[in-house]
Design goal:
The complex is a heterodimer.
Chain A: E1 5-14, E2 20-30, E3 36-40, H1 47-54, E4 62-67, E5 70-71, H2 77-86, E6 87-90, H3 104-114, H4 121-134, H5 139-142, H6 152-166, E7 170-174, H7 182-199, E8 202-207, H8 210-216, E9 219-224, E10 227-233, H9 234-239, H10 244-251, E11 309-310, E12 313-314, E13 318-320
Helix pairs in contact in A: 3-6, 4-6, 6-7
Chain B: E1 5-15, E2 20-31, E3 36-40, H1 47-55, E4 62-72, E5 78-80, H2 86-95, E6 97-100, H3 114-124, H4 129-142, H5 159-171, E7 177-181, H6 189-206, E8 209-214, H7 217-223, E9 226-231, E10 234-240, H8 241-246, H9 251-258, H10 296-300, E11 306-307, E12 312-314, H11 321-326
Parallel strand pairs in B: 3-8, 3-9, 6-7, 7-8
Antiparallel strand pairs in B: 1-2, 1-4, 4-5, 9-10, 10-12, 11-12
Helix pairs in contact in B: 3-4, 3-5, 4-5
Classes of the chains: A alpha/beta, B alpha/beta.
Bound molecules: adenosine-5'-diphosphate (2 copies), iron/sulfur cluster (SF4) (2 copies) and magnesium ion (2 copies).
């Protein structure tokens, strides 16, 4: 069985006087079996750009995206229809997606009609109620409301109910929980896990919040300035990151446990930040100006993403782009 | 030790056409000198309103309704912030109080260099140009920024650096009390960690007291000494950070802490329902519609914040000895 999604050597350069390399030779795949893949990185690292390319909203400068074996850019109209049905987007605040004059009921009915999901009114009603229950919403509380009468968490779950009706194979979720409170966040993440386990729906989960990626499990991809620094099984990477950037990122998570506080003082470490004091050029490790273990060779050429060698032994389940492990 | 700030019965609300809708209700809170007090709760529970009320910076339609806020300074003087006039407040804010509002890193003036923005207020208050500049440079150092930042424009700085400039400006006069609202919410984790560690440094070096308002339980766990959990405009529970995280007493604190996503494979259940807005605060215990331990009494009677074991206060009928005896 071919992979569900293959992203091959994506590059995205935004023009203008100051060219921005937003995505720099990014490749990864989401397998056919239901999986959650988290794409993590600081803001500006290229996450949303990758999402937009995968959704077909942006034509990449180079590289291609294969969905179910076919290139999304060159496939025909019929295939496009299949793609639109099988790949669904969930954004940060879906408020903008809804027509403000439509009640929640209408939002769901439109989907049912557009995709011809129900044969009768009664069946449509039953489907809506099932979808709402699948995302922990009570039909009587939301169906009759306009989007602005719902809370952020409710709107976000209404979006998932809509997605649920369509039974996609892949959800592309760009920062879906960053606007909702912690209490609601857990239920949202649980729904994605249930979608995977009970309905075979995969998710590409985009976030700057590593703790949510950790909770979701599955696979993780750590981006930095448009490049993948480390990728692999979430648990492996989170428990023992190899790339110095991944180590910095993961050790900076504010663990919600006062007995496990940050130990050494990070503020004493070199403070060069992105966009400030950074040396120009990309033929190097992009993390070199912040890396505590930087070596001469790191400035010379870009480290390739590969199976790392730790103590001369290949470490399974992940890839790292760092000269320390070659 | 007497509290640096003793808040009693503080209520604030929103002035409507006919009546005031209360947002923050009857808050009692002691802030100890030199501590970092974390104030947490879901969004909309009144944290920012409380912060602005403490600073006496509410703007209409927000109104202060009642209460007292005694600020005791180490030179022995004490003030009820509620009773002070605008000019007395200005003087006190200048010398002793510092407020870093939510989203303030975007409030720098884009056409002025950092220097002007940091020194203008100092000069207005009578410092010489030279003094103002050296104070600003010293404050920048507290947040690990080089003095040459003074000559930059805001757009030349990253978000983390702009937030540091804001913090530096806020601490340049060595305030006694700093109230910081969602200080690191918009920042990446690495920058967040650095800034929070710098904040601890500021507390240690300047001996400042900090009220840190945040919705992020992780931030509180990492740097607060004590925690006040707010729900629907009231303090639900107050205690040491270890106490609150290890043995939360109030069902809301239990829900908040229980719903934090931790390790993978360990499923946690969310906190069902949502926090009410001030127009829909429930009767009795405001948490009762969401509380898994609700009993009849809760729907009618408002629980008061009462001392529990050492260093702990909770507002819940479960810990109310008289009520519990009735049940
Ligand atoms: N339409 C655009 N035009 C120019 N630059 C863009 C555009 N979209 C994104 N960028 C730039 O590309 C980089 C990556 O952005 P983005 O993909 O939004 O990152 P993330 O989602 O990780 O925050 C950033 O430097 C951003 O400013
Ligand atoms: N100026 C205002 N106008 C209208 N509503 C307000 C105003 N200030 C606060 N509120 C309302 O009061 C409640 C508490 O707000 P806030 O203090 O900002 O909470 P938090 O900081 O905990 O998110 C919210 O429901 C908010 O909408
Ligand atoms: S390649 Fe060099 S600079 Fe880059 S992360 Fe590895 S050691 Fe550090
Ligand atoms: S007073 Fe009652 S409803 Fe409120 S938190 Fe305690 S048990 Fe729950
Ligand atoms: Mg983005
Ligand atoms: Mg707020």
């Amino acid at each position: 069985m071919s992979d569900l999604l293959v992203v091959e050597n994506l590059r995205q350069i935004f023009g203008g006087r100051n060219q921005t390399v937003a995505v720099d030779d990014v490749s990864f795949r989401i397998p056919a079996e239901p999986t959650i893949v988290s794409l993590v990185g600081e803001s500006g690292s290229g996450k949303s750009t990758i999402a937009r390319i995968i959704l077909g909203l942006l034509q990449p400068t180079a590289g291609r995206v294969l969905y179910d074996g076919a290139d999304i850019a060159t496939s025909g109209r019929k295939w496009n229809r299949k793609f639109r049905g099988e790949v669904q987007a969930v954004f940060q605040d879906p408020y903008s997606v809804y027509n403000p004059v439509y009640k929640a009921e209408r939002v769901l009915k439109l989907v049912i009609r557009k995709f011809g999901l129900a044969k009768s009114k009664a069946e449509a009603q039953a489907m809506m109620e099932e979808a709402l229950r699948a995302v922990d919403l009570r039909p009587e509380e939301v169906l009759d409301r306009h989007p602005h009468q719902l809370s952020g968490g409710q709107r976000q779950r209404l979006m998932l109910a809509r997605v649920y009706l369509m039974r996609p194979r892949l959800i592309v979720a760009d920062e879906p929980v960053s606007m909702i409170d912690a209490g609601m966040r857990a239920s949202f993440l649980n729904i994605l896990q249930d979608f995977r386990d009970s309905h075979g729906i995969s998710t590409l989960f985009i976030t700057h919040d590593l703790s949510t990626a950790m909770y979701l499990g599955g696979e993780i991809i750590v981006l930095y300035q448009g490049r993948i620094m480390e990728q692999g099984a979430t648990q492996t990477v989170m428990n023992a990151p190899l790339h110095p950037y991944a180590q910095l990122l993961i050790s900076s998570i504010p663990t919600p446990d006062p007995r496990r506080r940050w130990d050494e003082d990070l503020s004493a470490a070199p403070l060069a930040e992105i966009g400030y004091g950074a040396r120009a050029g990309r033929d190097r490790c992009l993390f070199a100006d912040r890396c505590p273990q930087v070596m001469d060779m790191c400035w010379g050429a870009r480290p390739r993403l590969r199976r790392p060698k730790v103590d001369a032994v290949e470490s399974a389940q992940r890839d790292v782009a760092c000269y320390l492990y070659e | 030790m007497p509290a640096l700030l003793e808040i009693r019965g503080l209520s604030a609300g929103l002035q409507g056409r006919r009546s005031v809708t209360q947002v923050v209700s009857n808050v009692d809170l002691d802030v100890q000198p030199g501590e970092i007090l974390g104030v947490v709760g879901e969004s909309g529970c009144g944290k920012s309103t409380l912060a602005t009320a403490i600073m006496r910076l509410l703007v209409p339609p927000q109104v202060l309704q009642s209460g007292s806020m005694t600020l005791r300074l180490n030179e022995g003087s004490s003030y009820d912030l509620i009773k002070l006039s605008e000019s007395e407040l200005r003087e006190l804010r200048w010398r002793h109080l510092s407020y870093i509002p939510q989203g303030s890193m975007n409030s720098l003036n884009p056409v002025l260099r950092v220097e002007r923005q940091m020194t203008d207020t100092l000069i207005q208050h009578g410092l010489s140009d030279k003094e103002a500049r050296s104070r600003s440079a010293a404050a920048l150092e507290l947040v690990n920024l080089e003095p040459k930042i003074l000559y930059s424009y805001p757009h030349e700085l990253s978000g983390g650096m702009r937030q540091r400039v804001i913090i530096a400006a806020a601490v340049s006069m060595h305030p006694t009390l700093i109230v910081a609202d969602e200080l690191t919410t918009a920042l990446d984790v690495v920058t967040q960690r650095q800034i929070l560690q710098e904040l601890i440094g500021i507390r240690d070096e300047l001996g400042a007291t900090i009220i840190l308002i945040t919705h992020d339980m992780g931030v509180v766990a990492q740097i607060a000494d004590r925690v006040a959990v707010m729900y629907a405009g009231k303090i639900a529970e107050l205690g040491t950070v270890n106490g609150i995280f290890e043995t939360p007493l109030h069902p809301y604190s239990q829900g908040l802490i229980g719903s934090i996503p931790r390790e993978s494979g360990q499923r946690v259940e969310g906190l069902p329902g949502e926090a009410p807005s001030p127009w829909n605060y429930p009767t009795g215990c405001r948490f009762h519609p969401r509380c898994p331990k609700v009993f009849d009494h809760c729907r009618a009677q408002t629980p008061a914040l009462q001392a529990q074991e050492s260093d702990r206060w909770a507002a819940c009928h479960l810990y109310d000895t008289e009520v519990a005896a009735d049940v």
